[in-house]
Design brief:
Low-confidence stretches of chain B: 124-131
Order of helices and strands of chain A: EHHEEHHEE
Structural class of chain B: alpha/beta
Strand order of the largest sheet of chain A: 1-2-3-5-4
CATH topology of chain A: Heat Shock Protein 90
CATH class of chain A: Alpha Beta
Largest sheet of chain A: 5 strands, antiparallel
CATH architecture of chain A: 2-Layer Sandwich
Oligomer: heterodimer
Strand content of chain B: 15-25%
Number of helices of chain A: 4
CATH architecture of chain B: 2-Layer Sandwich
Shape of chain B: globular
Structural class of chain A: alpha+beta
Distance between the termini of chain A: 15 Å
Strand content of chain A: 25-35%
Strand order of the largest sheet of chain B: 1-2-3-4-5
Largest sheet of chain B: 5 strands, mixed
Number of helices of chain B: 5
CATH class of chain B: Alpha Beta
Number of domains of chain A: 1
Number of domains of chain B: 1
Chain lengths: 134, 135
């Protein structure tokens, strides 16, 4: 499988979420995703960007186009150097929140994509990788 | 500071969101609308989101908040024009916008607001003056 990092964007505050949405939208339109698939990935990106900005103290997102013989996809990797998530299983649950939100960001984002990986270490930060295939 | 325009039409306030909403703009709209409801005594709020390509949990929460706050201030809120792809995504995300009235378009939304006015209003005098033939 071929992958190539096409873009990396900073997420330093919630103001950057709109730029992330636009960059992801532009790329999935180029890749020819259906409108529903575009909307799902852009919405997942919006949730995870907000998490990185509000819980992770800021971070980055990188966009990678994935290609193999059969399919095309877009991988987004969100990285922050925040406090990390002590109990990932709990944090994935709908309704669990420490930030005053609705607590559906992580679990909701997972439902909107095909592949979801989260790696978090207390004191070091969090890395969330998502893939949506065309 | 950036604001989304709020138009007063009779007893209703109309908002059409034409820009990609960043978080602060969503919060500003929430504050502006509640202030306008109180200032104008509006009985209904119509929010057109047909231009919104994304409604994430934050914007969804803002819509729910506006509906709840306006209800406490004796005004009904209806959200109109949601794109189908946005509706599909919202449900999978886990947000069903409970407590928010929705309608397919502005016409149907206005009809819904008018019919909510013809239900028992705050005072008998007001109810009479609000009544319209055929709602």
């Amino acid at each position: 499988m071929n992958s190539q990092t096409d873009k990396t964007l900073p997420i330093s505050s919630t103001d950057d979420i709109v730029q992330v949405r636009h960059a992801v939208r532009e790329m999935v339109v180029q890749l020819g995703f259906s409108l529903v698939d575009q909307t799902k990935l852009v919405t997942a990106a919006s949730e995870l960007s907000r998490n990185a900005a509000t819980h992770g103290g800021g971070g980055t997102v990188s966009l990678e186009v994935l290609r193999d013989d059969r399919r095309t996809g877009l991988r987004l990797i969100f990285t922050d150097q925040g406090p990390g998530i002590p109990d990932i299983e709990l944090a994935m649950k709908d309704g669990y929140t420490t930030g005053g939100g609705l607590g559906i960001g992580l679990g909701g984002a997972r439902r909107l994509v095909n592949e979801f990986e989260i790696d978090s270490r207390p004191g070091e930060g969090t890395r969330v990788s998502i893939i949506r295939w065309k | 500071m950036e604001h989304i325009p709020i138009i007063k039409m009779g007893e209703f306030l109309l908002v059409s969101i034409q820009v990609d909403m960043h978080d602060r703009l969503a919060l500003t709209l929430q504050d502006d609308l509640t202030e306008q409801i109180v200032r104008t005594g509006a009985r209904g709020v119509l929010i057109d989101i047909s231009s919104l390509q994304v409604v994430d949990s934050f914007i969804g929460r803002m819509l729910g908040n506006i509906a709840a706050m306006s209800r406490i201030l004796d005004a009904e809120t209806v959200v109109v024009g949601m794109q189908p792809a946005v509706a599909v995504t919202l449900v999978e995300l886990g947000m069903s916008l409970k407590g928010v009235h929705t309608a397919l378009d502005v016409d149907k939304g206005m009809k819904l607001l008018r019919s909510s006015l013809s239900r028992p209003a705050r005072s008998p005098a007001r109810e009479k003056s609000d009544e319209q033939p055929d709602g």
